[in-house]
Write a structure and sequence with these properties.
With about 200 residues, the protein is mainly alpha-helical. It has 8 helices and no strands. The longest helix has 25 residues. The termini are far apart.
Length: about 200
Amino acid sequence: MIVETIAFYVFAAVAVVSALLVVGNRNPVYSVLFLILTFFNVAALFVLIGAEFLAMMLVVVYVGAVAVLFLFVVMMLDINFVELRQGFVKYLPIGAVVGVILAAELIFVMVGTGLGTAPAAAPTPALTEFTNTEALGNIMYTQYFYLFQVAGLVLLVAMIGAIVLTHRDRGGVRRQRIATQVERGRDSVELKKVQSGEGV
């Protein structure tokens, strides 16, 4: 029990520090690397509470796909970060309002006052009846099915946005135009009869 407590505090402290470094780092590549470190520590916390499936999905999906995608997008896009930092003061009021709203929502959820108490969580079934994967699937595909589909649509929009941002027209690059190739007539090809043993 003491070992689990020590491991919890170590993983939680590293996760919090790395999450702060994600936000406070000036280099976006380092921010993505610290994000990967945060995901690994959160996955370790999931293992400590017995949610091995969530830990595996966090590592496989977020570290193996999303974080790597972030890294490639940050490295591929030619973003002028100096210009972005200059507009920080301009958008500071909007960011402050959004931050206050999010903080208020978190306080209402944690304290349970003001807007009413949060709904009681469903009782956790015994591990002999359901595994972690079965319990998660029953909740996700029955009670939160529509929200799950909305999350998929959000990820689809994000993927299309990433493709649109990275797709740019470059001058001097020859591209295949199928319509022009189909419209070519017979005069573009010349047939010659070559006798056996002779060259063209």
